[in-house]
Amino acid sequence: MASKTDILMIDPMPESFNEQLGTPFRLHQFTSVETLGTLAERIEGVTTGGGSGLPRPIMDRLPNLKIISVNGVGIDKIDLDECRRRNIRLATAQGVLTEDVADMAIG
What fold is seen in the domain 5-106? Predict the structure, then answer.
């Protein structure tokens, strides 16, 4: 049986999200760079919010990072040059809430 992929969660997510992702992945809530220890080498994915992004000191500690998933559209707090250099994929929720945000603005 294949082992689960380790995912680092920068921001807390709703419990329903954790339950869904917890089946195919092993989730780890981020607390500090200092406490990553040997876990850092196992992390292949990061979930984060647009406001938090992925600070470079955290990114630098994750040598096997393959993907960053942003719960939102903000990518200004993610080092895109470093993502390109390391071939790290980046996923956002672009377009998901466009109509809802427009409706709220009009309202």
Answer: Rossmann fold (3.40.50)
Using CA atoms, how far apart are residues 31 and 28, in angstroms rounded to an integer? 9
Where are the chain's structural domains? 5-106
Distance CA 93, CA 17 (A): 15
17 touches 27 (CB < 8 A): no
Gap between the Cα atoms of 24 and 12, Å rounded: 18
pTM of the model: 0.86
User: For the CA atoms of 65, 69, 70, 74, what is the dihedral angle to 10 degrees?
Assistant: 60
Query: Mean pLDDT across the chain, nearest whole number?
Result: 91
Per-residue model confidence as pLDDT tens digits over 23-64: 999 999 999 999 999 999 999 999 999 889 999 999 999 999
Query: Look-up: residue for tokens 């466009």?
Result: 98
